[in-house]
Amino acid sequence: MYDIMSYMINVFIIEDHAIVRDGLKDLFSSVDGYKIVGEAENGIEAIENIKAIKDTPPHVIILDMNLPIMHGADVIKELKPLVPGSKIIVLTGIMDVNRIADAIRRGASGVVMKPTPFSELKEAIVSILKGGLYFSPSISKQVIKQLSSQEA
């Protein structure tokens, strides 16, 4: 667990769309307490770049699940042993309960839907750095709905 008020939160962004990556960098740069320590547009590049910044590991990795070359769930599996103290938040535009469950099983600490405001992403970061998990409300509703229909 982290005392998130006492230091800069290092963020690493893995997103294949440059406009989304650049937008996230601009948003984080406009808020005190966050520092972008790296970025990547695919899983292979992410793993290489994170190995290169071993002295400054990210506290939080923001990861798109639909990446070229290597799927997001596989990226999570590879990153967890490299940076075990880093928390991974999946940022996705696709509501697929099975893929989300796979990401959680592999080590993601949260899932945020892309249509949500930046304030929710910051809320997710605070929650996971305090030791919790975070799921966008729409994801929680969908999971409960799917589980309810499976029990019937």
Task: Walk me through what this model shows.
The protein has a single domain (9-151), classed as Rossmann fold. The protein is built from six helices and six strands, in the order E-H-E-H-E-H-E-H-E-H-E-H. Strand 4, helix 4 (97-106) and strand 5 (110-113) form a beta-alpha-beta unit. A six-stranded parallel beta sheet has the order 2-1-3-4-5-6, sandwiched between helices. Helices cover 46% and strands 19% of the residues. It has 152 residues and is of the alpha/beta class. The radius of gyration is 15 Å and the shape is globular.
Query: Helix proportion of residues, in percent?
Result: 40-55%
Largest sheet data: 6 strands, parallel
End-to-end distance: 39 Å
Classify the secondary structure makeup into a structural class: alpha/beta
* Highest-level CATH class: Alpha Beta
Please state the CA-atom Rg, rounded to the nearest Å: 15 Å
Find the CATH topology.
Rossmann fold
- The amount of beta strand, in percent, is 15-25%
Mean pLDDT: 88
Order of helices and strands: EHEHEHEHEHEH
Note poorly predicted spans.
none
The quaternary structure here is single chain
Query: Count of DSSP helices?
Result: 6
- Work out the count of structural domains: 1
Number of strands: 6
CATH fourth-tier homologous superfamily: Response regulator
CATH architecture: 3-Layer(aba) Sandwich
| Coarse morphology | globular
The main sheet orders its strands as 2-1-3-4-5-6
